[in-house]
Amino acid sequence: MTLAEVKETLQAELLTQDSDLSLEVHSACASDMMSDVLAFTRPECLIITGLANQQTLRTVEIADALAVLFVRGKRPDQDMIAVANAKKIPLLATNFCMYDACGLLFNKGLCGVTEQVRKILGKDGCR
Amino acid sequence: MAADNTFIQEYSIKGWDFTRAGEASCEIKNILKQIGVSQDVIRRVAIASYEAEMNVVMYARQGTMRCEIDTTKIKITIEDEGPGIADIDQAMQEGFSTATPEMREMGFGAGMGLPNIKRNSDGCEVTSVVGKGTKVAMSFNL
Asked: How many Å apart are CA B36 and CA B27, to the nearest integer?
């Protein structure tokens, strides 16, 4: 799924400048706990979180994630957006709550990182 | 590089400095990229060292992170001056956490710190003296 599709699906706002929305995410990991993200995420995934601080960006860097989607109307401050611009990390924000945001993306074929779920749904369920 | 072809770099970590938290791990990650280490190993080193670095930032007054790279392995050693860990076996269990509400607000306290270090490294030893500090020594095979 491209970041443009994520943005459209969740009526999200792009917070960063000149971000390439044609980039594709192949999995997503949703948590407000960054250690959980570090434990379960895959490279080039979308991090879905309500945690809007510098540690979220560090986690992107450390875990080779592709982009961040903030949920529940959470917005990072301008300093954080400036850091994301400098590091070329796309930041999106939606007012949807985490569960609904995940549900809508899942419905469109963006799966998480649980291997069993990918096996159950197969290639048609997880794009 | 030292005479025996071991690259050594040391970083200092300051307690409760959330602005710089993670910088040392990111620098190590960049070094590993530059010398052509495989992406999988880089990612594992980065995650494990970041967790250890965050533990120092959250719990300790200060600490050091030492990175040693030779032709066969990467060793990362983090030593801190802090409260120490009374029961290391308990701290290694997934989900066990002593994080404060402030730490949870920063996105930590899932009880995955030490377990993440263990699961991402090829060798991991944690030693601690209550009231003095903790040492986490981890290694990664190249």
From this structure: 14
DSSP states of B80-123 as a string?
EES---S-HHHHTSTT-----HHHHHTT--SS-HHHHHHHHSSE
Q: Is A63 close to B109, i.e. CB distance below 8 A? A: no
Domains and CATH numbers, chain B: 7-141 (3.30.565.10)
Q: Which of residues 38-67 of A touch B (CB under 8 A)?
A: 38-39, 43, 49, 51, 53-56, 58-59, 61-64
* pLDDT band, residue B115 (cuts 50/70/90): very high
Q: Which structure tokens are listed for B45?
A: 């080193």
Q: Domains in chain A, start-ordered, CATH in brackets?
A: 3-125 (3.40.1390.20)
B123-129 sheet: strands from edge to edge = B7-14, B62-69, B73-81, B133-141, B123-129
Q: Which of residues 75-134 of B touch A (CB under 8 A)?
A: 104, 106-113, 115-116, 119
Q: What is the ipTM of this complex?
A: 0.88
For chain A, say whether B22 makes contact (Cβ under 8 Å). Answer: yes
Predicted pLDDT at A28: 97
Burial track A36-69 (b if 16+ CB lie within 10 A, e otherwise)? bbbbbbbeebbbbbbbbbbbbbbbbbbbbbbbbb
pLDDT along chain A (127 residues), means of 10: 98 97 96 92 95 95 96 96 97 98 96 87 80
- Picking from B37, B105, B106, B119 by the largest number of A CB atoms within 10 A of its own CB, the best residue to mutate is B106
Cβ of B110 within 8 Å of Cβ of A31? The answer is yes
What's the whole-model pTM score? 0.92
